[in-house]
Amino acid sequence: MGEGVLGVLGGMGPLASAEFMRRLTLLTTAERDQDHIPAVLWSDPRVPDRTAARTGGGPDPLPWLLRGISGLEAAGCGAIAIPCNTAHGWFDAMQSATRLPILHIVDAAAEELARLGVPGGPIGVMGTAGTLAMNLYQQRLQGRGYTCLVPEPAEMQALVTPAIAEVKANRVTAAYEPLAEAARILHHRGARAVVLGCTEIPLGIAAGPALPFPVCDTIDALARAAIRWAGR
Amino acid sequence: MGEGVLGVLGGMGPLASAEFMRRLTLLTTAERDQDHIPAVLWSDPRVPDRTAARTGGGPDPLPWLLRGISGLEAAGCGAIAIPCNTAHGWFDAMQSATRLPILHIVDAAAEELARLGVPGGPIGVMGTAGTLAMNLYQQRLQGRGYTCLVPEPAEMQALVTPAIAEVKANRVTAAYEPLAEAARILHHRGARAVVLGCTEIPLGIAAGPALPFPVCDTIDALARAAIRWAGR
């Protein structure tokens, strides 16, 4: 498609990648269509469930992820953003399969935390069971001076996991209260900010009143990283 | 990308095509990611302005539109939806360049009008100056028993055209009142429903209170046509 085109490997879930495209547009300074960032969104919701693959021996999503990356390469994209945190468990395999830079969502979240005035210290991380089991945030943020607090297994089972499923089934409003409760618990345990480290979570959190502490929306974080990549 | 994949030729404008992806997702009956419709969105906001090409001798958008269609064909899509009404002024040239069916947004709007309980009679059509000058709706809907009322040139200049530009510059809230006023005028002149026949217009209209008469949102209409195409 030409230089400066963003490739978006999405569909995981599809509402999150649509919202990513919306935020990419709304966060870009523009006066007319032609000022916006060209992008190709490969929205493939058929990619096997990432958490099931990591925690329950479900089918491997990697061949599907690599097919999407090839499609975005063929379309002429110059970089890739993946608005799904759990898919970053396959980051190294994806990055070694393409010459295009992949913007890492955890690095984007760290930039967003700094922008929110939380440059280090204890933070909460909410995500899928797969993301938490892989220590995706814990490993990558520890070198940046953050300590990650995550929900207890019982809180995952009662609050976070069912709420993520509600969003994937388009019942966004039903997801608000359990997600807000899980975030409040992490804040009470000492988190200075809470990372919404699954792209379904900000969709649920946006369906109700704002939380009274900083939250790092990983859809916005990745959109801002893409806008920086595009030099806008 | 495989059978049953929807190609979306978008970026005209980018907020409208992101919203199309959102509505496609929210209007699909689904319990998990894998129930949703796979899609590739080619969001190219660099396509030259369609209205300027039609009414002011601006650069021809057709080569850009055809390049997007080739990209969607190469990605393996099975049909194409174009969430930009004015681009349908080049429908015949696009359709003759591809073996993929292109879902026509005016046909989608007619289906939506019927669903809203307005199977014929006088309707209002709001759109870009390009869409109205091409008689896109007037010609295609007349055979279906509709008579189209459109804004007067002074109303286009004072209300509709500047409001569409506000949406393209991300100032969605500022677009509500002028668009609502133009719709009210058409309703007062006898329109039984008003077609929001530019995909920026529903974004502005959604930013304020609902109008007290039926409106046909062409983003929703095209999303429903795509869901029918996918057999969901």
List keywords for this structure.
homodimer, 232 residues, alpha/beta, Rossmann fold, 2 domains, 4-stranded parallel sheet, 48% helix
Any overview of this molecule?
2 copies of one chain form a homodimer. Chain A is built from 11 helices and 8 strands. Chain A is α/β, with parallel strands linked by helices. Chain A folds into 2 domains: 6-104 and 220-229, Rossmann fold (3-Layer(aba) Sandwich); 106-217, Rossmann fold (3-Layer(aba) Sandwich), CATH 3.40.50. In chain A, the strands form 2 sheets. The first copy, chain A, has a 4-stranded parallel beta sheet, sandwiched between helices. A 4-stranded parallel beta sheet of chain A has the order 6-5-7-8, sandwiched between helices. In chain A, helix 10 links the parallel strand 7 (194-196) and strand 8 (215-217). In chain A, helix 1 packs across helix 11 and helix 5 (105-115) packs across helix 11 (218-229). The longest helix of chain A has 17 residues, at 172-188. The first copy, chain A, is globular and about 50 Å long. The two termini of chain A are 19 Å apart. The A-B interface holds A 1, 11-15, 17-19, 21-22, 24-26, 28, 30-49, 67, 71, 74-76, 165, 168-170 and B 1, 11-15, 17-19, 21-22, 24-26, 28, 30-49, 67, 71, 74-76, 165, 168-170.
In short, what is this structure?
The structure is a homodimer of 232-residue chains. With 232 residues, chain A is α/β, with parallel strands linked by helices.
Low confidence ranges of chain A: none
Overall pLDDT score of chain A: 97
**SS content category of chain A:** alpha/beta
The CATH architecture of the largest domain in chain A comes to 3-Layer(aba) Sandwich
Largest sheet of chain A: 4 strands, parallel
User: Termini of chain A, distance in Å?
Assistant: 19 Å
- The order of strands across the largest sheet of chain A is 2-1-3-4
By CATH, the topology of the largest domain in chain A is Rossmann fold
Coarse morphology of chain A: globular
Helix content of chain A: 40-55%
Order of helices and strands of chain A: EHEHHEHEHEHHEHHEHEH
By DSSP, the count of extended strands of chain A is 8
Rounded to an integer in angstroms, the radius of gyration calculated over CA atoms of chain A is 17 Å
- Tell me the greatest interface: A-B, 44 and 44 residues
CATH top level label of the largest domain in chain A = Alpha Beta
